[in-house]
TrEMBL record:
Catalytic-site annotation from UniProt: H97 (proton donor)
EC numbers for this chain: 2.5.1.78
Single GO MF descriptor: 6,7-dimethyl-8-ribityllumazine synthase activity
Phylogenetic classification of the source organism: Bacteria, Pseudomonadati, Bacteroidota, Flavobacteriia, Flavobacteriales
HAMAP family registered for this protein in UniProt: Lumazine_synth
Binding positions for 5-amino-6-(D-ribitylamino)uracil per the UniProt entry: W31, S65, F66, E67, C89, V90, I91, F122
Gene name in the database record: ribH
Keywords: Riboflavin biosynthesis, Transferase
EC top class, as a word: transferase
Record: residues binding (2S)-2-hydroxy-3-oxobutyl phosphate: Q94, T95, R136
GO terms under biological process: riboflavin biosynthetic process
Protein name listed in UniProt: 6,7-dimethyl-8-ribityllumazine synthase
Length: 189
């Protein structure tokens, strides 16, 4: 489903676990900072809306999207966080550099998810032009930062429950969603 058919800011609050005790890191690229600031604001505000205290949200800046990999790695190594969001905006230029940056960041963040125990959420726009980025950072298609914050909460919860081995005897709804203490968690099919 393309973004144009699903607003990035829409989510069902009934499927989001209580996030008041989680700690989150956000690594923000300074390239295209008008866009990345919009994505950050979307993520930060969504965390606050879901009861994450501001003092439990750690922000680091890096020069560009390629540096998100190292920045996230060092945050994971040094900070007590339950999930990390990396925020970037890569826009096609005149050369193939776009392809290499996008692929490099994608693979690097994937590697961190494989090699470490902390979820790293991919909030990197890879757009053809600035208008597409504007549309996805608080514009007509919503805010990918909101989407990323919800993903971070859900993944932090999955990590927490998995570490407690609670999934083994957790009651399941008929839909296959986990029944958690106050609201069901919809696991993506
Ligand atoms: N063109 C964009 C870049 N390029 C810079 C790289 O991300 C990196 O900082 C540089 O190659 C030094 O290692 N970065 C973006 O985030 N967005 C772009 O559109
Ligand atoms: C993604 C990039 O690095 C790109 O925006 C740089 O522009 P260009 O390909 O014209 O050098």
């Amino acid at each position: 489903m393309a973004t144009e058919n699903k607003n990035l800011s829409d989510y069902d609050k009934n499927t989001v676990p209580n996030a008041k005790d989680f700690r989150f890191g956000i690594v923000v690229s300074e390239w295209n900072d008008t866009i990345t600031e919009g994505l950050y604001n979307g993520a930060f505000e969504t965390f606050i809306e879901n009861h994450v205290p501001a003092q439990q949200i750690i922000r680091w800046n890096v020069p560009g999207s390629f540096e998100l990999i190292y920045g996230a790695k060092k945050m994971l190594q040094t900070q007590n966080v339950d999930a990390v969001i990396v925020i970037g905006c890569v826009i096609q230029g005149q050369t193939k550099h776009f392809d290499f940056v996008c692929e490099g960041v994608t693979q690097g963040i994937k590697d961190l998810n494989v090699q470490t125990d902390i979820p790293v959420i991919f909030c990197v726009l890879t757009d053809n032009n600035m208008q597409q980025s504007i549309d996805r950072s608080g514009g007509i298609h919503g805010n990918k930062g909101t989407e990323a914050a919800i993903a971070a909460i859900k993944m932090a919860y999955i990590r927490q429950q998995a570490s407690l081995n609670q999934f083994q005897d957790q009651p399941l709804l008929s839909t296959g969603a986990l029944q958690i203490e106050d609201k069901p968690l919809e696991l993506e099919k």
